[in-house]
Amino acid sequence: MGADWIQGPYLYKLYNSYGLDLTQIAMLFLTGFVSGAFAGTAVGSLADTWGRKRICIVFCCTLLTALSLRLVNAYMLLFLSHVLSGLATALMYSVFESWYVSEHTSRGFPAEWRARTFALATLLNSVVAILAGILANSLVDIWGFKAPYVASMLLVCFVATTVISTWTENYGSNSQSKEVNLLKTLTTGLATMVKSRNILVIGTAQTFFECSMYIFVLLYTPAIEESINNAAGSMSANVPLGYLFSTMMLAVMVGSLTFQVMETQAKKGPRFCMQFTEDRLLTLALAFASCAFMLMAYQGHASTTTLLLAYHIFEFTTGLYYPSISSLKADAIPEETRAAVMTLLRIPMNLAVGVIMWHVDDMPASMLFSICGIMTSVGSFLVIAFYRP
Q: Transmembrane ranges (predicted)?
């Protein structure tokens, strides 16, 4: 994740320096999401039979190539870069988690430790993101917008070396399949989803939240720059995006710490705290995210301070969201189809973001933020109404 965080804050600015406008940038984002929906699903689903460690290595090679292409100011190469990074992102958010859950189970660790591990992972991820944002800001000041991407490539090489040298292989069953059948794997995963109402509810909530999150990633930089420029009455704003990113990641860290405290209290604390189970915490995360997006929707009428507050509220909910959704998926999805189901769950999100990216030039940021607010509020309602522990 550090490799992702260090280059994330400056993607919009890098493409601006290449002379691309918001529509062209949105089309590159669209390419990544479409790639994740199809290529990512195909490759990620093979992890259950081909081996999750092996697919993690594929992720490293794919991301390394994508980052290399991103250093070249040629639109077709940037297009190819996003095809590869879309595939890599789909793998990053499904196969690594599948590998961990399987390893946790095979080593005989208690199931209740998974929620704590996911919360700790989110916390450490936030710390890494904070440091990455600060480092990215310094690298850009010294060497320019391409520097974080070179640093990201070095981190990916380190990850690949670690996975190859220290990880064990695991599969969706007790032994490696002799025949890898993609269609059968996807069909089995889809059947698992359809039979479980909880998986469908979790998947829908994931689609609404993460679709909103990726729209936020595209819009937060131009929105804050526009707000500052309007306040200053000029176009000279030079926002320290690395530092802004770090403070937002601090909010994520606070969210993950809140999850740890509430999850512990739900099991051992007073009666009032026992209601804060993972599904209730997910409901709260979605509800607060909706409020944050509605604040962002009024960016044209709100102060820069209000907009920044909304950004940080949303990032707090992200810290609450990830350990909650990961814990619920670990409980609901059976081991033999885990990677397939998790990659299938990302298809609606990728396609929904793709549709919105296609029309990003037709809608103002306030309308897009409003759509995000509606999606997260609907997600919150679905979880509280239909999820059954």
A: 22-43, 55-72, 78-96, 117-136, 148-168, 199-221, 241-261, 281-298, 304-322, 343-360, 366-387
